[in-house]
Amino acid sequence: MGNINNAVMARLGENPEIPPFMMYSEVLQESVVHLLETDKISGASASSLTISADSLRKIYDNMDYFASRIVLRPQEISNNPEIIRRLGVIALNVGLEFDIYGHANSTHVAGVDLMNGIGGSGDFERNAYLSIFMAPSIAKEGKISTVVPMCSHVDHSEHSVKVIITEQGIADLRGLSPLQRARTIIDNCAHPMYRDYLHRYLENAPGGHIHHDLSHVFDLHRNLIATGSMLG
Predict the structure, then answer these.
(1) Gene3D superfamilies annotated for this entry (predicted)?
(2) CA distance linking residue 128 with residue 87, whole number of Å
């Protein structure tokens, strides 16, 4: 859910190289109505609609058309792990924050302030054929980096997050070692304003299989609290 998912769905519909597809989700948002109208989505299943009054009226006025394309099911079905696995879903979720090893925070700002609940993201992320997380690389005009050494809160572990996408690029983490994942996320997804810092952290942090410096791992968050910017 959210503006990012709406924007991504809209762009998927605009891409001529992507054939019509089916959607299996917990919630259907505004962009899905247009994609159904244009036959870019051939069918959509969810447990609820979060759309504007105009789009809802459009569905009511064209019920014969939409009734064969939208199925609303109980959440026990839409979020059922076995069904998600059986369908081979490609799951698209939005994160607030990622760390350099691929853990994702999708609910808590700075680890303490609740932004939203986890919703169905955990059900889809853990059981999808391919789990993709998306976010802008920075927030607040660069004062906040989405990519940090360690997440301030973890909703989704590195074992389930397979791909991370920001406007900077794509980090495909499948089959990579922890240090390979870290370098791929920094190089492909972190904003240039923060890449040098993240690389220095990774290279200077002690460790074996995973490198972390627990005395400095939350320096970006401390800077944000103290100065209003992670850059300090």
Answers:
(1) Acetyl-CoA hydrolase/transferase C-terminal domain (3.40.1080.20)
(2) 8
26 a catalytic residue:
yes
What would be the CATH architecture of the domain defined by 86-227?
Answer: 3-Layer(aba) Sandwich (3.40)
Kindly report the CATH number that applies to the domain delimited by 3-79: 3.30.750.70
Select which of 26, 97, 125, 158 is catalytic: 26
220 token code pair: 């970006």
Nearest to 167 by CA among 8, 14, 6: 8
Neighbouring C-beta atoms of residue 231, cutoff 10 Å: 15
Residue 211 CA to residue 203 CA, distance in Å, equals: 8
**Over the stretch 102-131, which tens digit does the pLDDT of each residue have?**
999 998 888 888 788 778 788 899 999 999
Give ∠ CA 75-118-7 in degrees, rounded to 5: 90
Q: Which pLDDT score is estimated for 1?
A: 56
- Which residues face 23 on adjacent strands? 44
